[in-house]
Design a protein that fits this description.
ARM-like, mainly alpha, two-stranded antiparallel sheet, two-stranded antiparallel ribbon, 4 strands, single chain, globular, Parkin_co-regulated_protein, ARM-type_fold, Leucine-rich Repeat Variant, 11 helices, PACRL protein
Length: 216
């Protein structure tokens, strides 16, 4: 017979090939091919599904968050109906400032709850205990670089917490902070150009001058 069927319209149609017949007829001839699994994409090797580099569990905790998770911060957040507060394991005046005060200062750079509240309130309340001046002054060489990092942070809330902590520290240690102010004024002068911080920074500078005396 002929290999080409001729229709009345003159259009020539070729008969189905063996591969085409395999698709429309019995699947037995192609069963082996259909059982073969597709080859993995190159991206699957680079980013296997078992590893999510952007997952929450893949991100390492910050130093403060890790210490907090292990119970190294002796206070916890207590949710109140009006406002939150801290609950200390025992009176805060019974704790050593070294390294607790430095650790709380490092937590000022946190951007997640509850670390933001715990570090800010913990730093503030620890400086309010009796004898805070004698306990905090020897730690200034370690506290100032940490506060400087908070003041240089791009997050506005982190900067605000750092500025509040600096004023609180100045009120406690007084003129002892004067020798360290030169390391902090650069960060303050940069933010002074921002209108939303101009008034707050000006007030902070006035308090630093008040607590530091004429030398400041």
């Amino acid at each position: 017979g002929e290999n080409v069927l001729r229709m009345s319209s003159g259009i020539q149609i070729k008969p189905k090939t063996a591969v085409q017949k395999c698709k429309t007829s019995s699947p037995l001839p192609c069963s082996q091919e259909s059982a073969i699994k597709p080859q993995p994409k190159p991206s699957d090797k680079l980013n296997p599904r078992t590893i999510d580099p952007f997952g929450a569990h893949s991100r390492p905790l910050s130093a403060f968050a890790a210490i907090y998770a292990k119970g190294g911060i002796p206070c916890r957040l207590v949710h109140g109906s009006v406002k939150h507060r801290l609950q200390w394991e025992r009176p805060p005046e019974t704790f050593r400032f070294d390294p607790l005060l430095v650790t709380l200062a490092e937590g000022l750079r946190e951007t997640k709850h509850p670390y933001t509240f715990v570090s800010k309130e913990g730093f503030k309340e620890l400086l309010m205990v009796e004898g805070a001046t004698e306990k905090a002054t020897p730690l200034l060489p370690r506290l100032v670089p940490v506060l400087k990092a908070a003041l240089a942070h791009s997050d506005d809330e982190v900067f605000g917490r750092g500025l509040d902590a600096l004023v609180q520290l100045s009120a406690v240690v007084g003129c002892s902070l004067n020798d360290h102010l030169k390391h902090l004024l650069t960060s303050l002068s940069r933010r002074l150009m921002d209108k939303k911080f101009r008034e707050k920074i000006t007030v902070a500078l006035q308090k630093l001058e008040q607590y530091g005396g004429k030398v400041s």
